[in-house]
Amino acid sequence: MYRKWITFWRIVRTGVINFFRNASLAIAAMAVMVVTLSIILLSLVVNTTLSGTIKQITDKIDVSVYLKDEVTANERREFIQKLETLPNVASTKYLSKEEALEAYRQENINNPDLLTAINQTDNPLPATIRIKPKDLDRVQEIQTFLNQEENKVLQAEEPSYSGDRKEAIDKISHAANVLQRVGIAGIILFAVISVLIIFNTIQMAIFNRRDEISIMRLLGANTWYIRGPFVVETIMYGIISGLISILLIKSLFIASSGPLEASSLGLLDITYAQRYFNDHFWILLFAQIGIGVIIGAGSSIIATRRYLKFKAPKK
Hints:
Blueprint: H1 2-21, H2 23-59, E1 63-66, H3 73-84, E2 89-95, H4 97-107, H5 112-119, E3 128-133, H6 139-146, H7 149-152, H8 163-208, H9 210-218, H10 223-256, E4 264-265, E5 268-269, H11 270-279, H12 281-307
Helix pairs in contact: 1-10, 2-8, 2-10, 2-11, 8-12, 10-12
């Protein structure tokens, strides 16, 4: 056991020495890894922020069904019960004519012209059922149910999920799916690029130390004694790059907190992104370091296996 610890310590020490000995290669590799990890972290934060923003928007979206005045209470209850059995219906809320009028007034409280117009006539608004869907991608299931003949005769007009509103909801739903896929694809792409860069860096390091490696092999060094320092060296790449990338992103948020406070860029809510980053800082820090270590160590192991022929000498 003691000899194993001595061997392990020598491998670590050699890796640290090689790290400083090949400072130029280390800096180049870490620069690429910092960029990669920063892009991965930004992709994660932006994707989470966009998903959160879109969720806030979609949570306010419902399908409104307008009932005819002659619909009886029993017909209404039976209709609502059928709606609630649909798989994509999260909840329903019934508004009587009076409640629909009050809701209309609250929604247009800042528009005196509309309020004046509605107050000068008898209540023209029908009783309404507001349906909250579970998944916007499947709202068509609700629409199909509402278009059935026995249900359509109860409705005073087309549901709110139609025309321009339907198109807007469909675009939001499509945007959510596209952004999520783009974020995942971006993370995978830059991770692969980083692996290739580290792979080539280790290949150069192996080439520069080929004489040293040949001597070690002739002296009977085993596989991990030769490979170990390369792995330790790239693990250091990952740790340092992870720390630098998280600090860069944190500095970016600090620098932007003044001019961009409580603002947004399209669907990107800067305040939400900053709050998410701060709330999950330590998780993101260890995740960055972990990803950096995995990329570095994995690339090193692949490179050494590919370019070093660890074969026992023939007797």
